[in-house]
Amino acid sequence: MEDYANRKAQLPADLKQYAKYVDKIFTYEGKRVVEERMAINNNFRPTKWMAKDVWCRGIIDIGVVGSNKAYLLDWKTGKRKPDSDQLMLFAALAFAHYPWIDTVVTGFIWLKDSKFDKEVFTRDQVTEIWNEFLPRLQRLEISFTDNKWQAKPSGLCKNWCPVGRKLCDFCGV
Predict the structure, then answer these.
(1) Is the separation of the CB atoms in 130 and 121 below 8 Å?
(2) pTM for the full predicted model
(3) 33, 84, 89, 157: most buried, per Cβ within 10 A?
């Protein structure tokens, strides 16, 4: 998909049905972005991907950044499971990297299901977006500093938990 979006190659026969997604996003006016790495420091300023001061990173699979609006999308190949957090984070990174845009349309393209989930964010929401993430990050920072990690159930608990049944409070939940 990346090579097709960058016009370096045609899609193989088994992926040709996905060309419509690339072609559609590139009908929007603006700078094309493909596999764009965005990083910011803890002052919410853009920085290099591997900079010493990097605090948050995200990779945009495909998108277009226009004069006041950006469309930033992520390919999904697995089971459809929308994640507003990832879409919010894309928007926050975009607002830091593209100070001229006022609106970010983010979305997941679910390739297996031919579905599209989207969310729209405005620059006025940047503080609200970060206020959603910062309390979680503060908890992680405390855990990292004290080397004490709170157990938390996840979709991996039942069959894939590396902790093991005897040590995990959530095993078998």
Answers:
(1) no
(2) 0.81
(3) 33
The residue written with tokens 């964010």 in the block is: 121
- Cβ atoms of residues 60 and 33 within 8 Å: yes
Q: Which residues pair with 115 in a beta bridge?
A: 110
Q: How many domains does the chain have?
A: 1
Average pLDDT of 118-143?
88
Domain that holds residue 128: 2-146
Tell me how far apart the alpha carbons of residues 44 and 47 are, in angstroms, rounded to a whole number: 9
Q: Dihedral (C-alpha) 133, 139, 142, 148: value to the nearest 10 degrees?
A: -140
Q: Identify the DSSP state of 26.
A: T
pLDDT of residue 133: 86
- CA distance linking residue 111 with residue 1, whole number of Å: 11
pLDDT in tens, 74-96: 999 988 988 889 999 999 999 99
Q: Give the C-alpha distances (Å, rounded to integers) separating 30 from 62, 70, 122.
A: 12, 8, 18
C-alpha dihedral (42, 151, 161, 145), degrees to nearest 10? 40
Question: Is residue 156 domain-resident?
Answer: no
Q: Give the residue-averaged pLDDT of 44-51.
A: 97
Question: Percentage of the chain with pLDDT > 90?
Answer: 67
User: Cα–Cα–Cα angle for 137, 142, 143, nearest 5°?
Assistant: 95
